[in-house]
Amino acid sequence: MSECLFCEIVAGRIPSKKVFEDDATFAFEDIAPRAPTHVLIVPRRHIDTIGAADDEALVGRVFLTAARIARDRGLESYRLVVNNGEGAGQTVFHLHVHLLGGRPLSWPPG
Q1: Taking the CB of the first residue and of the last residue of the chain, which one, N or C, has fewer CB atoms within 10 A?
Q2: How confident is the model at residue 110 (pLDDT cuts 50, 70, 90)?
Q3: pLDDT digit string (tens) for 16-75?
Q4: Residue 98: how many CB atoms within 10 A of its CB?
Q5: How many whole angstroms separate alpha carbon 62 and alpha carbon 59?
Q6: What CA–CA distance (Å, rounded) separates 68 from 106?
Q7: Which domain holds residue 13?
Q8: HEC-encoded secondary structure of 6-39
Q9: Catalytic residue positions, numbered
């Protein structure tokens, strides 16, 4: 079985617009942005969903990476989104956080 799309991106086998990387996380621009800033932050280690996550430190690192990117881009207001499962809109089953910002965001989101 081949690796998931995001595992392929992290490994460099599928090109992406890399935003940030460290030993635990990888961040890249979304190919179909929903806001002026739309970055996906993933753990390097494959985890299917937030519901399947078992590494508190790694999940925390993903969120802190998102906050760092927002700070680096000068975003004071932004949204972090995690979809868990198909019914919630998750289309790639590799845990990822959407960082959305750069425009007013309404509530509820959808």
Answers
A1: N
A2: low
A3: 999 999 999 999 999 999 999 999 999 999 999 999 999 999 999 999 999 999 999 999
A4: 18
A5: 5
A6: 23
A7: 5-101
A8: HHHHHCCCCCCCEEEECCCEEEEECCCCCCCEEE
A9: 96
